[in-house]
Sequence to fold (201 residues):
Amino acid sequence: MTVSPELRTLPTIPSAVPSAPSPRVSFAADPAPAPAPVVGAPRPGSPDLLRSVFRQHAAGVAVITAHGDGRPVGFTATSLNSVAAEPPLISFGVGTGSSCWPVISGAEHIGVHILGEHQEALAATFARSGADRFAAPTRWSLGPEGVPVLDGVLAWLVCRVVAKVPAGDHRIVIAQVVAGDPDGAGRPLLYHQGRFNALRD
Fold:
């Protein structure tokens, strides 16, 4: 390094007082900035967030049926759950604004049908608003306790309603198994990413 001639000629001045060490100054780390919201992402705590998350959840497909006011009713459900073994209880959700709710709300017994991968059209029929769900080509008959039982399903149950629990704009229906048949042939139909799907090998 080249030294400036002016700096070479400056005298050295001894210090009268020993210099104190520079105080150590610590700085608190700045808090990490909040992540920027993703454009188009669902708002936290919104119904859209719930829907977006549950689109990732593969669920079995069932049709719930009941009979009342002289007519059969039914709808496609992906909210079916086994609740308890003793006594044998199941649950499912139904919207209070659905066309089926007036009948189901007063029904003593309901039918639960597990659909096979060959029944995508049936699932779509029972999910479609305004459809005549029990007209041909739907095949069904009256089963135990006068509940409509669909033909060709993987399995079905008839259950006695024991509770209807308020849950937002839905009711969670809890029902006890009284009859059924688990021996249908085929593989289950699934619902994932807003579509009906079959199992992959």
Remarks:
- Residues 83 and 90 are 5 Å apart (CA to CA).
